[in-house]
Amino acid sequence: MIRLLKVFEFVWIGVSVLSVLKVIDLWGTQDETERTLFWIFAGFSVLGVFMFFFRRRMRLKMEARKQDQSA
Questions:
Q1: Distance set, CA 17 to CA 31, 37, 43, 66 (Å)
Q2: Residue 14 φ/ψ, nearest 5 degrees
Q3: Of 45, 55, 48, 58, nearest in space to 12 by CA
Q4: Where are the domains of the chain?
Q5: What is the SS3 assignment for the chain?
Q6: pTM
Q7: Going residue by residue through the chain (71 aa), what tens digit of pLDDT does each one get?
Q8: Phi-psi map region of 31: left, alpha, beta (phi>0 left; psi -120 to 50 alpha)
Q9: Which of 13, 12, 41 is nearest to 27 (CA)?
Q10: Which residue in 36, 53, 39, 44 sits closest to 19, CA to CA?
Q11: How many CA atoms lie within 13 A of 4 on its CB side?
Q12: Which residues contact 30 (CB under 8 A, 6 or more apart)?
């Protein structure tokens, strides 16, 4: 279970990296739909970083609780 949580942490980093790459690709666009996509992908990149740290903190708390119960 803990190993799976670690994998999902890095999935969120992957989402963030791919979103940043798409934001860079859409940086100077003038088309209205592409500008909307720019902000959507910018939001996903911020969300990915936030979720990485949030899930990491939750996983570490779970590991600590599991160790306390074992000891």
A1: 23, 16, 12, 32
A2: -60, -40
A3: 48
A4: 1-21+45-61
A5: CHHHHHHHHHHHHHHHHHHHHHHHHCCCCCCHHHHHHHHHHHHHHHHHHHHHHHHHHHHHHHHHHHHHHHC
A6: 0.87
A7: 889 999 999 999 999 999 999 999 999 989 999 999 999 999 999 999 999 999 999 999 999 999 999 87
A8: beta
A9: 41
A10: 44
A11: 1
A12: none
Closest-CA residue to 12 (of 41, 58, 44): 44
Which amino acid belongs to residue 60?
L
Tokens (6 digits) for 22: 């798409």
Q: How far is CA 38 from CA 14, 26, 34, in A?
A: 18, 6, 6
Joined tokens for residue 50: 């936030």
d(CA 44, CA 16): 6
